[in-house]
């Protein structure tokens, strides 16, 4: 089974979060940018389904290259109820292969490709979704967690 890399990143409040904080099952999702349409849809879907996720003992973290201040603003603006982690240098994103060349509106640039991981307390990757579609992903995630967790 593939392992999630060792990491320690700051959340929106400057608190350090890392492998030591993985208890039970954790959803760690990578997204391109705070307060953009797709990223907002995805974050709000997770927010709206946190009761379900809590009921199956699943913790959620979002990760992007945005700053703590941008994360705080995103959380406040959309009443998000989970932590967002800062990967400004893209070290964790690169280690997982989610920071790479991508096309957006016909332009190529390097950035985070929307990706979701389900990880256990031993940092084992239980499931990985690449090139996630923001609108339908919550249903895929819930179905997987209902069956597998």
- The SSE string, one letter per element, is EEEHHEHEHEEEEH
Biggest sheet descriptor: 7 strands, mixed
* Quaternary: single chain
Count of helical segments? 5
How many domains? The number is 1
Name of the CATH class: Alpha Beta
Instruction: Indicate the low-confidence ranges by residue numbers.
Output: none
Enter the CATH topology name. Answer: Glutaredoxin
Strands of the widest sheet, in order across it, are 2-1-5-4-3-8-9
Overview features:
149 residues; alpha+beta; Glutaredoxin; 7-stranded mixed β-sheet; 5 helices; 9 strands; 31% helix; globular; AhpC/TSA; EC 1.11.1.24
In short:
This protein is of the alpha+beta class and 149 residues long.
Topology:
Blueprint: E1 8-11, E2 16-18, E3 25-30, H1 37-48, H2 50-55, E4 58-64, H3 68-78, E5 83-86, H4 91-95, E6 99-104, E7 107-112, E8 115-119, E9 125-129, H5 137-148
Parallel strand pairs: 3-4, 4-5
Antiparallel strand pairs: 1-2, 1-5, 3-8, 6-7, 8-9
